[in-house]
Amino acid sequence: MPRPDSAPALVLASSSPRRRDLLAQLGIEPARIQSPDINETPAKGERPRPYAERMAREKALAVSRADGECVLAGDTTVAAGRRIFPPAESPDDVRRFLTLLSGRRHDVFSAVALIDADGQVRVRVAASVVRFKRLHPDEIDAYAESGEGVGKAAGYAIQGRASAFVPFLSGSYTGVVGLPLYETRALLLTAGFPV
């Protein structure tokens, strides 16, 4: 949907096609997309929720913004207790992460940051709880070999084949996918977007 002339231009600070698709569900199409380049290593002792908030803020601040533009960025952090799971870099990572999450609940903190046209930064976080069924090693191997979990936080995509592993989810489904739409819409409304 084209934006009305009165709405500011939106820069999406993410190369994630999932975030772009989720924004489209709100009828928002970014004027441009720019992938941020930041250090995503957690600070020593950093807890998962503050880490997700910091990552979303830093991603938004890391991209260029012209006068009058708004910047939207997100971060999805998966954690078991205080342990933060990075994106899986290989099928072996997927196996290791799913083995650790098998039969357990884990937290997903999905932060969204918006820099409005005046340069003010606002951040909101959706906190969700996901439980995996107890996974058989053959299920873990098959999922790892599918390639779906590579590049995903904690090595799985809830919107894909991994949805069959989840008997319980409390919180924001779209947040677990990668962009919490309730929180995102609230931020966009404060910046003058007709959503």
Automatic annotation (TrEMBL):
The keyword Cytoplasm applies. One of its GO terms (cellular component) is cytoplasm. Its main location: cytoplasm. It is found in: Cytoplasm. Gene3D superfamilies: 3.90.950.10. CDD domains: Maf. Nucleoside triphosphate pyrophosphatase that hydrolyzes dTTP and UTP. May have a dual role in cell division arrest and in preventing the incorporation of modified nucleotides into cellular nucleic acids. This is dTTP/UTP pyrophosphatase. It comes from Pacificimonas flava.
